[in-house]
Amino acid sequence: MCSLLRKHLHWNLPKLVSARQTSIYTQRLLSVVTPDIIVPRKMKGRFASEEQKRIISEFVIKSNSSINDWGALKSSVLSIERGYINEKNINGCILEICSQQKRLDLVKSFMKYVKQCSQSKPNIALELLYIRSCYKSRYELTDDDQYEIQTNCQSLFKNNLHLLNSVLLEGIVMGICCTTLWRDSLKFIKESKIEGDVTLNTFVSVILRAFEEGEIDLGWTTVQNMFNLHRIIPLEIIAAWFNLCEKNINCSHRRVLEFLRDNEYIIRDNLAELIRSKLKQSGIKTTTTMIYHNSGKCKNCNQVLEHAEVTNSDFKILQERFLSNVMIGKNIFNNSSPQELNDFKDFIEITAPYDVVVDGLNLAYAYRGKIGDHSLTKIVMKNFIEKKLKVLLIGRKHLVKILGKEFDFIKQNAHIFFTNDLSKDDPFVLYAAMYSGIDTQILTRDLMRGHKYLLGDAAVKSIFQKWLQKHRLRLRIRAGDKVIIKEPITYLQATQESANGIWHMPYQEFKEPGSWSKPDSSPDKWMCIKM
Amino acid sequence: MLISRWSLRIFSKLAFRNKSLVEGSKCPYLLKLFEPVTSASRYYCIKLEGPSDTLNYQSNTPKPFDDIDYDSITGGDEETLSKLKRLILEIDLLYESGEQVPSHLRVDQWQNLLQLSSRSSRMKHLKYLFLIEKKKENRIVRKLEKRAERIERYENEPKNNHIEYGLLRNSMFHRIYEKQMNSLYNYRLCEAMLYGQDILIDCSYDGHMSLKEQTNCAKQLLLMWSYNRTHKDPFNIIFCNVDKESTVFKGLSKTIPTIDDPTFPLNYTKKNYLDLYPREKLVYLTPHCNEELKEYNHDDVYIIGAMVDKMKVEPLSLAKAKRDKIRMAKLPLDLYLDWKQGTKNLTINQMIMIMADLKIDNNWVSALKHIPKRKILDVDGYQRGLVGSNHKISAKRIRDDFRRNSVYNLLIKK
């Protein structure tokens, strides 16, 4: 049967299909088949919900009068079936878009419509959204509106005191800040018992209102509270303060700089520009400048900046925190082992204090390829030893292999501690430097940011940063294998006032994600302000 | 005339569906098959008329969550109850402002949400749940569409009075059911339990993982187990340090409900690995150590840590092995592969795949093919082959080119 079939085909094929026809046939096979009808995109998911939002925002932008057919809008939005907006959350979405466009009249008319429909009070979430949208256009509110919001906020706070969360509190405070009773907001924050969890916007709305009313002390204490919690200064606050300065003679621009000085906070690019333009308006001269690293002198005014100080008590706190948080951490086996740590402690007790602690592996790897052979470690060590400094070299056991012949020289002239191959060596370097005293210096290119993070507290972190900046030696390799050891930065990298009333303020530039930062963690730019 | 069992099932279901269409006008939210053959509309799933009327009068303002089982979520605890109420208020607010929040949450999902501490993490989790919900909805719709299509096709097919052959029709082969395959695989596993090689899974890292990582880990364990049973020479996998209350094990036993059956071929024990085997025999496989595994040693018992570290990488398994003073080893990835991107930690199921293949012929080149291709530099990166050959130089060049190109890309972007 099978053979018969094949025969049959074999005989018939040439007859049936002529040469021309076969060529056409293959062409058709190879060509890409385009569909005759383009299928419209399915209305679902994100696409559908964007369409829904578009309908609402078009409606909001177009409408002029306060009488609107909200019902028609709702049904037209809900006719798109598979979007994210449904009957349950459509009210909130419409309110949100109205407030985005700052249409207070529409917000009010929509709330009236909702009340009409439901014949009862709208739920908490909707009310909060209403208050928020009122806050956005708070300068247009009439007295009646203010009264309504005020009673609303007070009843909301009273009814939900037992289950206040930060978002609800934010809404209530925003509402009360629109009214004349705005001072109650501080009482609300205090009574809510979630002081550790208050959001940034809550503080901002209180501060803005305080500055508008000219309540200077209240405003600045709130700014301090906010900064302690969130470590950030929003742009609006500073702008509001400068606005107040223009009206009130008692307030001065110095207050901002003093705040930055006291908190040692390094601001961003956009805030610095704002300060610059505002200072220019009031006739204060500002110039962008840079600071010479080795002397700490300003290029513009030749003033020497303040020294960074680490007091003994601070240093003690840092030592304790470092041992518990970084060296041991959650599990000593992650970094090292108890046996090794004890050996190291004994070793330091016998041989301390040192003048310089050298991070051997960092030295060997970070400058790899800059100098012909592996003699960098030897050159550096020789440099130290000639100055009659007491040096400790820390590395892992496999460093011996890298050093090779030079190891004998180092062994004779310096103290050496090698950790296990599976341990981390950076904590050992820092530990040795810290425990041999406040004057010991470190030679490493590492900025130790990971270890800084583990310290936890912001205050301790800033102590660590200052200590490291004051004690970290760096290398510079010139052509011809010339090695220069650069002295550490000693001046204070924060906003400060010199004796003759000249301010220096550092700020960070805006950076594209993924771009390089400076290799010594110093601020990008400085501003020299002549008061 | 013979009709196969499958088509019978479809027709019986269809009949049921049609019946429910008549009855179902009482229950408004039911998804329905809406006259699949004749209707020309795109979607076969519609909601019955009824809720659309509520738009205009809205007797009470709708709340997103009205069916919350407070008692089973909190377990009668006052403090969690107030916490839950706060959470509900927060989610209500998010829902009202049009954020992506699921419309229904199960009891265990509520409990998981209660455990999250920060608001942003809760929001992320809610979005994740939302996407899952939407996925499920879409799956149902697609299923109904497909079914309708299939039925249409069957109806339009030309009928003959003879026996029908083909897929889902008559066939000359005996159908192999899943049960038969299962029994074969389980037989292999049982054989491995008697005579095969042992491998240990250390399930003691539950506290170090976040919720997402824990569920991920449970899934990886399941994949590992199922791959192992299909392998031609499976391991005898022993889960040790198992805590039955932990999320990982709960997740695993949720997908394998018969895990506690005496006949089910899965071993787990509360005991530590040191109680099971002598210390000299154990080797912990961890990516953080320096020793490389040269070849598979049949005398050794290898341990794999059941841990997923997506968020922060800590050398936990290294610390554990160091404390217990057992030998450690890592896979010789650098020796055989040119790594492109991603961490050098592998998933648990990949580890089992590699070890199982390695056990057969000690051939690293073929065993390491289970590492995903995206992590490897070259398309033929698997074939770097023998150590010390000239390939090594070219591999270096490839890596340099890759780096240079990525720098150029960065510059071009700027």
Which terms summarize this structure?
A: 531 residues; alpha/beta; 6-stranded mixed beta sheet; 4-stranded antiparallel beta sheet; 25 helices; 10 strands; 55% helix; disordered N terminus; B: 414 residues; mainly alpha; 15 helices
Approximate helicity band of chain A: 40-55%
Oligomer: heterodimer
Helix content of chain B: 40-55%
Strand content of chain B: 5-15%
Order of helices and strands of chain B: HHHHHHHEHEHEHEEHEHHHH
Topology (elements, then pairings):
The complex is a heterodimer of chains A (531) and B (414).
Chain A: H1 2-16, H2 19-30, H3 45-62, H4 70-78, H5 90-100, H6 104-118, H7 124-136, H8 143-159, H9 166-178, H10 184-191, H11 200-213, H12 216-230, H13 235-247, H14 254-263, H15 269-281, E1 285-289, H16 312-328, H17 332-335, H18 338-351, E2 356-359, H19 360-366, H20 376-386, E3 391-396, H21 399-403, H22 407-413, E4 415-419, H23 426-435, E5 441-443, H24 449-454, H25 458-471, E6 472-478, E7 482-486, E8 496-497, E9 502-507, E10 525-530
Parallel strand pairs in A: 2-3, 2-5, 3-4, 5-6
Antiparallel strand pairs in A: 1-10, 6-7, 8-9, 9-10
Chain B: H1 5-23, H2 54-57, H3 70-74, H4 78-96, H5 107-115, H6 119-156, H7 178-195, E1 198-202, H8 211-230, E2 236-240, H9 247-255, E3 267-268, H10 273-276, E4 282-285, E5 301-305, H11 316-324, E6 327-329, H12 333-336, H13 348-361, H14 364-367, H15 391-413
Helix pairs in contact in B: 8-9, 8-13
Describe this structure in words.
The complex is a heterodimer of chains A (531) and B (414). Chain A is α/β, with parallel strands linked by helices and 531 residues long. In chain A, 55% of the residues lie in helices and 9% in strands. Chain A has 25 helices and ten strands. In chain A, the strands form two sheets. In chain A, strands 4-3-2-5-6-7 form a six-stranded mixed sheet, with helices on both faces. Chain A has a four-stranded antiparallel sheet with strand order 1-10-9-8, with helices on one face. In chain A, a hairpin with a 3-residue loop joins β6 and β7. Mean pLDDT of chain A is 81; it is low at 1-31. Chain B has 15 helices and six strands. The relative contact order of chain B is 0.07. The model of chain B is unreliable at 1-62 and 384-392 (pLDDT under 50).
